[in-house]
Design goal:
alpha+beta, binds adenosine-3',5'-cyclic-monophosphate
């Protein structure tokens, strides 16, 4: 298995629920190290650009409205097989279908307020990381996990 990086977003409902720390703990306990992190209130333009692949979907407008409704936490997570591991730790997009013990099962409200975003492929991880972070903002460090 290779060390990978993936983009994670704690969505506005995660901040509203006061669970930033709990979510980051889940990542750290699963070998996913935050190597870049920033809190940001996305503009409409930033949210639309980030989710441009979903532009034609019926939920696009509501998704952008929700993602700009409050601040988010943007992170780059690094670890072995980080892209798939992050998706496993997050659980299914719709919390109704998420496995027990996953972030979305435990904390998400519905398919829109689903608490976290994670890149779904190596190609998208690269694009999504570059959308929010410069290389110089990514800071690897040693850890026991
Ligand atoms: P995310 O992983 O951030 O990627 C796109 C988001 O669209 C997804 O999580 C959901 O929060 C959101 N979304 C809203 N409605 C739907 C839907 N019906 N199907 C899939 N995604 C949806």
């Amino acid at each position: 298995m290779a060390t990978e990086r993936t983009l994670s977003i704690i969505k506005p409902d995660g901040l509203e629920k006061g669970i930033i720390g709990k979510i980051i703990t889940r990542f750290e306990e699963n070998g996913l190290k935050p190597v870049a992190m920033r809190m940001q209130h996305l503009s409409q333009r930033e949210a639309e650009g980030f989710y441009v692949v979903h532009k034609a979907r019926p939920f696009f407008k509501d998704l952008v409205t929700f993602m700009t409704s409050g601040p988010v936490v943007l992170m780059v997570l690094e670890g072995e097989n980080a892209i798939a591991k992050n998706r496993e730790v997050m659980g299914a997009t719709n919390p109704a279908n998420a496995a027990p013990g996953t972030i979305r099962k435990d904390f998400a409200t519905d398919v829109e307020k689903n608490t976290v975003h994670g890149s779904d492929s190596p190609e998208n991880a690269k694009t999504e990381i570059a959308y929010f972070f410069r290389d110089t903002e990514i800071t690897p460090y040693a850890s026991k996990r």
